[in-house]
Amino acid sequence: MTGVQGTRTRAAVLVESGRVAPYAESRPLEVTSLRLDPPGPGELLIRVGAAGLCHSDLSVINGSRLRPLPMALGHEAAGEVVEVGEGTEFEPGDHVVLAFVPACGHCERCVGGRPALCGPGAQANGAGTLLGGGRRFEAADGTRPHHHLGVSAFSEYTVVSARSAVKVDRDLPFETAALFGCAVLTGAGAALYSAQITPGDSVAVFGLGGVGLAALIAAKAAGASTLIAIDVVPHKRDLALRLGATHVVEGGPKAVEQVREITGSGAEKVIDTTGVVPVLEQSYAATRAGGTTVTVGLPAPGQNLTLPALSLVAEEKTLRGSYLGSSVPRRDIPRFIGMYKSGVLPVDALLSHRLTLDEVNEGFDRLHTAEAVRQVITF
Predict the structure, then answer these.
(1) List of the chain residues with pLDDT < 50
(2) Three-class SS string for the chain?
(3) What is the pTM of this model?
(4) What local confidence, expressed as pLDDT, does residue 1 receive?
(5) By CB distance 3.0 to 4.6 Å, which of 268, 325, 343, 348 could disulfide with 186?
(6) What's residue 6's pLDDT?
């Protein structure tokens, strides 16, 4: 129910990080009723249609990435605009995909074409507020849960900055559209923009979750001739083969040697999506001289990377970070959706489980045990 007094919504709120799995028993996420303030200037009230479960959510739940609590979690979503604040170009009824960096559009990085690095957006995300400041959720006891990356998608309704929203066609199912807000934007962007894969390249992808498989299908679309998929989980390697990998390698101590055997001297472009420092070190080692290693994973703060420094010069290797796939959401979400509709990016294959909001803790058990690729809560 919506109105001038706000909206009632059921949302999954993280009240304490670090509870141990199985999460179906420890229940780190509490599904509770909250009130939502009406959208302010430059903001939107969204009815969430679908929201994806991502390792970035899990890292907040398990405490490896600290965020202010309590927090209404979730950052990958699609939904319908219900109400608009002053000064936005959106209208009620618009379908949107939500991006997890609310790019202000005015700072030096935004103006320079790198909205993923928006300073005000990063500051708001770190503080658990919307881009304009403040929090719009309110619990029955008067406390105000924080927003997760400006989205808070595990909720029937949410208020976001209009700078977090990208309008999309209404014929795209919400459960598919949601994946473009993180998994596809990050993975495909890493392949096409950060790694700049071109026809004939040899490519290796370490980690075959939603982001890794999105990188793999984008690499195939870009014309990679040798496409190696690496993961410790057999069913994910099988899926990678169905999606176009030319080779699969079991993750572990022999992975670098096997990539080198397949390619002769290492892959030209290597993408690490795991957020695990030893795997990033393997990814760099599996990159040939003159090649590029791209990492999109988020290791826990305080972890350090050890690399042979000489190789950066003597082998002219490049190591590049990629946040949000080095993408521009307002440009690239429509672009990637167009590629999906043309059959080039089979994004539906990434969706492994559908669940309800009340099953959110069980969903994170599947993510924790690597049973799932991409799960979506549907509303």
Answers:
(1) 1, 3-4
(2) CCCCCCEEEEEEEECCCCCCCCHHHHCCEEEEEEEECCCCCCEEEEEEEEEEECHHHHHHHCCCCCCCCCEECCCEEEEEEEEECCCCCCCCCCEEEECCCCCCCCCHHHHCCCHHHCHHHHHHHHHCCCCCCCCCEECCCCCCCEECCCCCCCECEEEEEHHHEEEECCCCCHHHHHHHHCHHHHHHHHHHHHCCCCCCCEEEEECCCHHHHHHHHHHHHCCCCEEEEEECCHHHHHHHHHCCCCEEEECCCCHHHHHHHHHCCCEEEEEECCCCHHHHHHHHHCEEEEEEEEECCCCCCCCCCCCCHHHHHHCCCEEEECCHHHCCHHHHHHHHHHHHHCCCCCHHHHEEEEECHHHHHHHHHHHHCCCCCEEEEEC
(3) 0.96
(4) 44
(5) 325
(6) 74
Beta-ladder partners of 149? none
140-190 confidence digits (pLDDT tens): 999 999 999 999 999 999 999 999 999 999 999 999 999 999 999 999 999
